[in-house]
Specification:
- The complex is a heterodimer of chains A (about 300) and B (about 350).
- Chain A has about 300 residues and is mostly helical.
- Chain A is built from 14 helices and two strands, in the order H-H-H-H-E-H-E-H-H-H-H-H-H-H-H-H.
- Chain A has helices at about 5-35, 40-60, 60-85, 90-110, 135-140, 145-160, 165-175, 175-180, 185-210, 225-235, 240-260, 265-270, 275-285, 290-295; strands at about 125, 140.
- Chain A is globular and about 65 Å long.
- Chain B has helices at about 5-25, 30-40, 45-70, 80-95, 105-130, 135-155, 190-205, 210-220, 220-225, 230-255, 270-280, 285-305, 315-335.
- Chain B starts with 5 loop residues before the first helix and ends in a 12-residue tail after the last helix.
- Chain B has one domain (about 1-330): ABC transporter involved in vitamin B12 uptake, BtuC (Orthogonal Bundle), CATH 1.10.3470.
- Helices cover about 70% and strands about 0% of the residues of chain B.
- With about 350 residues, chain B is mainly alpha-helical.
- The chains are: A mainly alpha (about 300), B mainly alpha (about 350).
- At the A-B interface, helix 4, helix 10, helix 12 and helix 13 of A face helix 5, helix 6, helix 11 and helix 13 of B.
């Protein structure tokens, strides 16, 4: 294998490992921009992963799997929305409940699907790939990878350049003022939360339909939490989520390559890297408190009573 | 005061109702499943003792977490702190293998508490020094602790005569907790719960520090104006919860397990979050809630044996309980009133 092929291989593996983080983090970014903190990403990802896998196995159709994953994530998110937006429950506690519930529910629903093989999602090549020999692993990806890559600039445009995006940010920055102006705060937040659920479901589905592809209990292994950290790392900007996801994708696969290159470090220590890197990145980003205050949506995590 | 206890009771009731539907949906006879799940396991002295064994680590973790939650310090990495406590305490037991004495058990307990504290000190330091969210750091450290545990029992601490199984050698009798009830597995760890509960109650109800913790949680601005040292409260919350989680870890390995095995805890550190909320963050409530959640673990095992009910039901049950609790809180605390229509003009 030439150096070029190795490089392309590493880049392709990085993009693949980044995709579940990217999808889930982009969804959570929209949720947080609307002023809601949903700590249930991990749970929604797991439920999406198992729903997608079950639907794909049952129907034989990858499209059905993807649709089921998004739908399952949305139902979980709706549950969170009813609790926090309508019933005004504490967002931190409800998010934790969503993760604990999703972990149990996915294990229960998936118990008959452990060990079943599944063909990975079909790949879609960039047109004109024949003209670029050697780039095949990079430019021929499945639909969820392309979706993640397209979603980052699309969300940047939506949030920064569209009226609907402006309203969503207004709701997140100052729900009182947005309400006074006649914007439907609760409806906007429901929309954002459900979008976040769909994206988390798709992120989970990428793991069970394309990355591994199989179902195993707790297969997200903390990726939902890393996605939450990525949103902070990206200072709530979609473009930076993309960069952060690639960074973490690279760290996630680093241990495979380190072992390949003969580093004599125990596998468990290399597997710690993504988690340690998350902490390091969070520290680097949050040490400047003023910077975080400037970038974080001002109403993040705050309950909204329209009466007041 | 009585109002505060309606929500947890309502939540347990709703969860039981939902469990009936869940069992029926899975194709099991609902009443028989409820019986196998919630009644059968505690209908003997042995079963009650097992309930205490399972409730001990849950209550220890929850008592610490609850103190932090009062002050809005969200340590959700008790599972990792429990693991590090178990490894530190177990490490002492293995290092002194063959040369133990009466002092070994106290040394192990101290090491376990120190291990959990040290692991919780990292999020405390990062939160105070760099404003890093303790939610994310404490959780990330749980994964790191799990991998460290895996490395230890696959490598340095593996039983040399264990035929390659990834677990340590069995602890010596000197390194095991004495039993409370002969013929059962109920060990003196249950007494630690009673002591911790009393200490937590004294702290929260009778001490100035406890008052500061509560004010910091209910009215952060008032706490700042009063000059309460936020950094000190963060340190205190995390060190206490980490230390108690570490104690829970060493109590598990020196009690029912008796070695460092592949699984030290079936998620006690996470379930303890539910226990803390279910117990209203009140020390006595949290111990009662620990007994309820311990029953969900026991019931899960019993129903699996009796009816072939999948073990994962336990997780669904626990998650559902927390949801119903949060929803019941809203129903109990808020009154539904018809909105007054705005005056015309």
């Amino acid at each position: 294998m030439t150096g070029f092929e190795t490089l392309i291989g590493i880049l392709a593996a990085t993009i693949a490992a980044a995709t579940p983080l990217l999808l889930a983090a982009l969804g959570e970014l929209v949720v947080e921009r609307a002023g809601v903190l949903n700590l249930g990403v991990e749970g929604m990802m797991l439920v999406g992963a198992v729903a997608g896998f079950a639907a794909a196995v049952a129907t034989g159709s990858p499209a059905a799997g993807i649709a089921a994953a998004a739908l399952a994530g949305m139902v979980m998110a709706l549950l969170f929305g009813v609790m926090t937006i309508t019933l005004l429950a504490n967002q931190v506690a409800t998010g934790l409940a969503l993760t604990l519930f999703g972990t149990g529910l996915s294990a229960l629903a998936g118990r008959d699907f452990v060990g079943i093989p599944l063909n990975p999602l079909p790949r879609i090549a960039v047109p004109g790939l024949d003209l670029l020999p050697g780039l095949e692993p990079l430019l021929s990806q499945d639909v969820l990878v392309w979706l993640g890559l397209a979603m980052a600039p699309a969300l940047a445009l939506f949030l920064g350049r569209s009226r609907a995006g402006l309203v969503l940010r207004a709701v997140g920055e100052n729900h009182g003022a947005a309400h006074e102006l006649g914007h439907p705060v609760a409806a906007v937040r429901y929309g954002a939360v459900i979008f976040g659920g769909a994206m988390a479901g798709l992120g989970g589905a990428y793991l069970s339909l394309a990355y591994t592809p199989m179902w195993a209990e707790n297969m997200t292994a903390g990726r939902g939490w890393i996605a939450l950290a990525l949103v902070v790392f990206a200072t709530w900007r979609p473009g930076r989520v993309l960069v952060g996801a690639w960074l973490f994708g690279g760290i996630t696969i680093a241990h495979l390559h380190a072992q390949g290159m003969g580093f004599a470090v125990p596998a468990q220590f290399l597997s710690m890297l993504p988690y340690l890197a998350t902490i390091a990145v969070l520290v680097a980003i949050s040490r400047d408190a003023a910077q975080i205050r400037l970038n974080a949506p001002a109403c993040l995590g705050k309950v909204f009573h329209p009466e007041r | 005061m009585a109002m505060a206890w309606i929500a947890p009771v309502l939540a347990v009731g709703l969860t039981l109702g939902a469990s009936l539907a869940l069992f029926a949906g899975l194709g099991f006879p609902p009443l028989a499943a409820i019986h196998a799940y919630f009644v059968q396991p505690i209908s003997s002295l042995r079963g009650l003792a097992e309930l205490g064994v399972k409730a001990t680590p849950l209550a220890l973790c929850a008592l610490g977490l609850g103190i932090g939650f009062r002050a809005n310090v969200w340590n959700i990495g008790a599972e990792g702190q429990l693991t590090m406590g178990a490894l530190a305490g177990g490490g002492v037991a293995l290092a002194c293998h063959g040369s133990g004495g009466w002092w070994l058990l106290p040394a192990m307990l101290a090491a376990g508490i120190a291990g959990g504290m040290a692991w919780a000190a990292i999020p405390a330091f990062l939160r105070n020094r760099y404003h890093t969210s303790e939610i994310l750091t404490s959780l990330m450290l749980t994964y790191v602790a799990a991998l460290f545990h895996a490395w230890l029992i696959h490598g340095p601490l593996r039983d040399p005569d264990g035929m390659g199984f990834p677990e340590s050698r069995l602890f010596e009798p000197d390194a095991l907790l004495p039993m409370l009830l002969p013929g059962t597995r109920l060990h003196i760890g249950a007494l630690f719960v009673v002591v911790a509960m009393a200490a937590a109650w004294l702290l929260l109800a009778r001490s100035f520090l406890g008052f500061q913790l509560k004010v910091a949680g209910l009215a952060p601005q008032a706490a700042a104006l009063a000059g309460f040292d936020r950094h000190r409260l963060v340190w205190f919350s995390l060190l206490v919860s980490g230390g108690l989680a570490g104690l829970a870890g060493v109590v598990e390995v020196a009690g029912p397990i008796g070695q460092l095995s592949t699984t030290i805890s079936p998620g006690y550190g996470f379930t303890a979050i539910i226990v803390a909320f279910l117990g209203r963050l009140h020390p006595i409530g949290m111990v009662l809630a620990a007994l309820v959640m311990a029953l969900s673990y026991l019931g899960g095992e019993a129903a699996q044996i009796a009816l072939g009910l999948p073990q994962a039901v336990t997780g669904v049950f626990q998650g559902m309980l927390l949801f119903f609790l949060l929803a019941s809180d809203v129903l109990v605390h808020y009154r539904v009133r018809r909105a007054t229509p705005p005056l015309p003009g």
